[in-house]
Amino acid sequence: MHQSRLFASLTAAAMVAACGSSGGRTVENIRTLSNRADLVSGGDVLVEVVLKPGTDSKDVRVLLNGATDVTSAFSTRADGRFLGVVSGLRNGSNSLSASIGGGARMSLSMTNHPLGGPVFSGPQLQPWVCEPEASNLGPAVDDQCNVATPKVDYLYKSTDPAQTMLLPYDAANPPLDVAQTTTDAGMTVPFIVRRETGTINRGIYSFAFISDPKQQATPAQPPVGWNGALFYIFQGGALPQHRQGPVIASPQADVLAIPQLAKGYATAASSLTIFGQNTNSVVSAETLMMVKEKVAESIGEIQFTLSMGGSGGSIQQNLIVNAYPGLIDGINPSATYADVWSTNTEVQDCSLLVRYFDTVSPALWTNVSQQNAVMDNGDLAPGTCRAWVQLGHLDEGWANPESTACHHPTTVLAGPRTSQPWMYSASNPKGARCTLQDYQRNIFGTRPDGFAGRAYDNVGVQYGLEALKAGMISVDQFLDLNEKVGGRDINWGWTAQRTVADPDALTALYRTGQMNLMNNAASTPILDEKLCINLEIHSCFHSYKMRERLRQSTGSIVNHVLVLDKTHDDLSGFDTLAAWVRSIKSDKTADTLETKVARHKPANAVDACWINGRRETDPATCAAAKPYFGDPRTGAGAPITVGATKCQLTAPDRASYGVSMTDEQWARLQAIFTQGVCDWSKPGVEQTAAVPWLSFANGPGGTPIGPEPTASRH
Q1: Which domains does the chain have, with CATH numbers?
Q2: What is the pLDDT of residues 644-684, one digit of tens each?
Q3: Residue 168 contacts residue 155 (beta carbons within 8 Å)
């Protein structure tokens, strides 16, 4: 009798337990789909509540911060996934929990950031000029340039072949000439495009996708014409501007990119991913992340992201895949540079050399070919160095605190310049300094004088060394050049002494990946369609520099494909990149991403060049037709990687020059290089690999963001 009562009691307890656990129905996981849980912004986030198979989603209850029932925001998609956009997140810490009946509760900690930012870029630059009215968004409603509501409009592709651009679409009076398009997912739909423009992170964003205005697209019901991927447009130039700017710098960079939209891609851009308006790649990465989140919360989880952009647009792509890997799945840069800071080294060297040739010792340098040999430029006019200095004025625009580059009507420092009352000058020493390092002070920190740390250095650089060894210049030319080339002070004034980098800035330069050695880039397919123009700033050299950095840092260049001077209206390269990334995403093995990149590289993803409109894949033919040269540092004996901003020094070795020097000349050389000459066989001072995913919220140099939060059971 006692055993029977015990058995009955145990049976009843088991039944209660089963009821409490909802009969085996459980919430398996909670995960954010629009962004990492600790990096969300704008007060909302796309979330999936993962249920055990067979669980009825009607029994699920979802709570925000333990009190607000947000279950109604969720719905079950056609594929059975239970997801929704949760709104009402407060700035800072939040929690989201999901449970079934009295069963165990899953919860996920989330951190929300303001729509106007920042998330991980650190304290926002001041002053900042809001300009939403110029983009027809109405006035800013706060100091972060936010507007009351985004602007939405519809456009369409006409069947009239004479209409090459998208035309306004009036839903109340639908036009009769709407074309059809078949996406790369095989869906044939009307070519009607929804475009949204608004404000994020103090910039202006825009994104577009094919959508029927009669059918409201949501993450639960994504637009039929969307292929699940995002095409992001990075734009060029490179100026440290203190303004919001427009989202489109040129018609060629519009989010109304007809070829990609026709294939089914959503397209997006931001005024803060125009490098000519915001030369800070950390802010670029942050903005890209926030815009991607906005797109996902509007139409659904993004399966992969491809990007395109030239010149300053290429810099952003190359820096982001190394410093914030995973934000972009495949990049298609053109007019390529590895980063802005090794480019700045080239530009400042060019500035000193052009000054020397033209104003210091012109009688010694009447032969322009000798000048180009020193600068390791192609012997063409105007030449890379002179283009940087005399056409682009970027030596001044990046390093002169009084350059007016802080606020300029275009993305290049040309045309009329107007100083603003908040800019630095001799009469306004507390004003905003228009230099790269001051614009990026969250990265580099400040010196005791309050100015941002500077990473440029030319101590020990033997300008013209390779030209001397090759017999192209004389010993006296070499010595005169290195005696008189000089450097720049922190206010860009010329000095007889060489420039010495600030030590903390050098540390930050490498740690943050601003000197982009590509050590984290092996997991991203790169299709580099290089515009190769050796007579101006977009010389062929930069792609080869980046490729060799990738090889030395990772041991492989399998993810890098270089195509020179490709016909601009040919999108075959983009299609190749897309197929590559799709195959990688479809590979569900446990292999590393680097292994998958190599495994799924398409057969047609090979180096090539275009000669007279014809594609050529023979390396020797391309090398002969598309030669590359270097920059003043390679002309001074540096390797093609030019990774040492500040070189380690060694005593000069008389025998190493390969030319005869008199004792007087040798003594003169030793007097020039009292601290020693560059030893290019050693890494640069403070040179180290970049640390990925840094936050600058707690100060310059950055701290690792750490692993993404995961849900836990309670």
Answers
A1: 16-113 (2.60.40.10), 132-334 (3.40.50), 345-512+632-678 (no CATH)
A2: 999 999 999 999 999 999 999 999 999 999 999 999 999 99
A3: yes
